[in-house]
Amino acid sequence: MGSDPIYSLSRITARFDNHQMLDKEIARLARDQIRLEIAEQNAQLRAEIGRIRAEMSARGVLHSGMTLHKVAQACADAARDRGQLTWKTLSRFVTTAGVLYDEELGDDLKAVVDEFLPPTLEDLKGYPKQEAEYLNNQNAVAELERMVEDARSSILAKTKNEIDLFAISLKTRPAVAPERSEMADRDSLTKLFTRGMFDNQFAKDLAEAAKSKRPLSLIFMDIDRFKAINDAYGHQVGDAVLVGAAQCIEGVAAGKGSTYRYGGEEIVIVLPNHDVQETIAVAERARRCLESTRLNDLAVTASFGVSTFPEHGRSAKEIIEAADKAMYDAKNRGRNLVCVFGEPAPQSTKGREPERKAPTPEVLTEKQRNELRETYFRGGTIRCPRDGAILTVSESTPVALVPITTLLVMCKMCGLVERI
Questions:
Q1: C-alpha atoms less than 13 angstroms from C-alpha of 114 in its C-beta half-sphere
Q2: What is the domain range of residue 198?
Q3: 162 and 230 housed in the same domain
Q4: What CATH number corresponds to the domain at position 194?
Q5: What is the 3-state secondary structure (H, E, C) of the chain?
Q6: CA dihedral (154, 157, 159, 165) positive or negative
Q7: Domain identity same for 306 and 395
């Protein structure tokens, strides 16, 4: 068996589509997703260690065993989290791929987990080791590394037990291979998922949302004046515009939900665990992406309709009709808009508001700065105080006796850029 996770994932993928298709691209994407989530976890760990150092420095005990212990504990927690996120991502992949049971399935899955949670685990064990070396306390290295190793061993055993249970659950199911590959569920032009795939998957997403009592949102998008583009420039240009729009929309939705070609120039985004305001933010980013991108050297806009379970309906039919109605409201109110189902039209005396404009970036208040830092260093997601968009964060730690982590925050919605 190869040591590369792609090898194991490819063997798993080869079991569907009548055991004949070896989809290396899907395997690569799964591996990349695991690596991406580990990278995000490592960024959170570095922030947590910076917070620990700052806290210990403020208490006057930076150069102490207490700091060493806290850093080691943070790394041990990160090892447990890594095992959980690796299996969570991997199980999502194999479930989506529609794998079939065979005797090697469990071993293949365990090989992938082993690859991402190796005994060395240098990126996690290195932090307490560095702390001990900095404090010239080599006697503590073995004990601190053991804390991380115990956490790794514990989560590894738990994860492998879950894999065994997963494999057994597959064994008890009827061994019927899917009749078609994923490509059959992709639109041949845009490469988005098809309407048939949407009809099937949205019902499942809605059932899961109802079971977990979490929101599920829908965005309907329709390219403005698309018929006029076809009539003026021909259908080849129209197809090129549709493909470009699909790529733009799918790029915005990546990592948040799934994108489908619903029909003609209509595109649908399904966003699990997104409330109304979060969905508006996604739709507005998609609208701006189209507005600012020339497709086949043409200026193109689109109208967007938003609906959310359970606020706007409890059945698939109700949610779909609500998003569709909101989209046509956006068309009727002047196009190039994001509308939410049921929201009133602007008063005619106030004129048309062409978009949900984000406020002009200003300097954050001291309270906002402190709240953002506190949320970030606690491992939470930080959002722009003005438009609610998730902020992009980069860290900068000056070389000094007492390192203080500086955060550079950026908002793609309103353009805010500030160091806190």
A1: 12
A2: 186-350
A3: no
A4: 3.30.70.270
A5: CCCCHHHHHHHHHCCCCCCCCCCHHHHHHHHHHHHHHHHHHHHHHHHHHHHHHHHHHHCCCCCCHHHHHHHHHHHHHHHHHHHHHHHHHHHHHHHHHCCCCCCCHHHHHHHHHHHHCCCCCHHHHHHHHHHHHHCCCHHHHHHHHHHHHHHHHHHHHHHHHHHHHHHHHHHCCCCCCCCCCHHHHECCCCCCECHHHHHHHHHHHHHHHHHHCCCEEEEEEEECCHHHHHHHHCHHHHHHHHHHHHHHHHHHHCCCCEEEEEECCEEEEEEECCCHHHHHHHHHHHHHHHHCCEECCEECCEEEEEEEECCCCCCHHHHHHHHHHHHHHHHHCCCCCEEECCCCCCCHHHCCCCCCCCCCCCCCCHHHHHHHHHHHHCCCCCECCCCCCECEEEEECCCCCCCCCEEEEECCCCCCEEEC
A6: negative
A7: no
Q: pLDDT digits over 353-364, tens only?
A: 444 444 344 467
Residue 357 belongs to some domain of the structure: no
- The listed range with the strongest mean pLDDT (60-74, 123-137, 322-336) is 322-336
Q: How many domains does the chain have?
A: 3
Could you tell me the CA-to-CA distances from 264 to 194, 284, 321 in Å, in that order? 11, 22, 17
The reply to whether 179 falls in a domain is no
Q: Are 376 and 302 within one domain?
A: no
**Co-location of 138 and 211 in the same domain:** no
Q: Is residue 345 domain-shared with residue 391, that is, in the same domain?
A: no
Q: pLDDT tens digits for 135-146? A: 666 666 677 778
